[in-house]
Structure formats: C-alpha cells, structure tokens
Amino acid sequence: MSRFARPTLTLLACVLSLSLAACGGGGGSDGDAGGETVILPGQDARTLIQFGYRPGTGVYDYGYRSIAQLAISGAPADADMSRFAMSHNGRDYLLYAFNAASDRLYLFLFDGRRYTYAADIFLRNVPADASVASVAATYSPGTGYSVYLRSAMDPTTIYQFQSNNFTGPYTLGGGLAFPSLATTGAPADADFDRWTIFYDGATYRQAIFQRGSVDTLYQFGWNGSSYEYGHASRPTAQIVNAPAETYQGNAKILHDGTDFRLYQLAP
Asked: pLDDT tens-digit profile of 8-31?
C-alpha cells in the first residue's frame, strides 16, 4: 500500500463478510507461534487446492464456485512450494514461491489451465531480521506489485517490497510503499508464521491462523496506520471441506476483482 493510500472500508463491511459472486478464479469455474520458524509441509507440492468464499458466512468452502484443483507446472527443481503467495492484478493470477536457498522467488502465471513457471523474482534491500519462513503478495493499480516478509525479531512488523511490474525487482519501500507495516490487536494465540495479505480494490486485509488450528483464521483490516484485528472485518474466518490430501498448515487468499479465493497445497 502507498504511503498516501487510505484504503476505504466499504466493499467488505467485514473482512470476510464479503459479498462475493461469480465464478472461476485462479481460474475459472467448475459448476508454532510468532517469530519462530515453522517447517510447513508441501515443499514439493504441485497442486493448488482452491476454496471460494460463501457470501455473508465467514466460510471458505472447497471448490465453491471455483475449479477445485489446479496444477503447478514447470517448477524449478529447487522450488519450495511450502513458502508460497498468491495475487491477482486484474487480469493475471500470480503464484510466488521461494527457492530452497531463499535468494529469490519463482513466479508462476495461470494460463487458463494450470500455473506455469514464468520468471525469477529478486528482492532488494532485505532487512537483516526479515524472515523468509513465509511470504505474502498483493497488487494495487495505484501502487503496483507488493511482496511482504515478516520481521523475525518482531513478527507484528511486516516489510513491504514493491515493483511496477510483476517481474521485479521488488525493492523495500519501493515507489510510494510503506517499507514497514504494523499489526495491532492480535490475539495471543495468533500464529504469525502462517498468514496472508489480500486486497479487494478498496481495502487491504491480513489473515493469520490461530495457533494449533488448520481451519480458523484471525482477520485484520488496514486502518490507515496498521493492520488492526477485526477492523472493518469479521474477527475470524473458517476453511471447510478440505480434501484429505491437502496440506492444511498454510493458506493464501486473493481477490480477483469479483471473488475472494483461498488456496492450499496438495501433492
């Protein structure tokens, strides 16, 4: 988000009191605690499991108004899919994943059937305490493409890297972006290693898993100076009906201009 952006809080009176419609997405339609590194399953995953938001319920439901499963194709051998992020730029669905060495991100684009490897992404001016245990991403027409890392010393702090195009490089505080963003009011059992950021064209939001849970997310809205727990948001959202093969340790959310979608991984 921009230093000057003050996202309105109108599209979703509650973070996941979202009024979602339509189909598709990512695409198309088919009918441990903060600061500590957590090793998540899914490093070699090659399938995205897709959930759609049921309007007014606070629930992301497997396959709801979405293609239920999407393949990941052409991934480099050292791609670590357990550390992934999702975004949408108004036209393209984007998937980011760290490589094993954590010195770059791999970018995948949805081609109408699957996510296909497209480019290497580099982050510039990474703070010494930035954790590469997890990553998030958004796009805003006013400010460009953003990638986010958390501080390992203070997980309530998020570092923001920005670029004018999705191939980067992404620079800390690039353009009009805030270099760091605060998270406030988080419940004591918020698991800062499992989180996502998403933007619906009006409001930026963050969701963080409840520690020990695979289906409950705490939700935060940007209030102009921080991601505040429950601000213009449902305090919690639920993930339901995940298939047995799903790696449920992590999840990422995007808004594609019509619908909110949540993604997890599978083999």
From this structure: 322 233 333 333 333 345 655 444
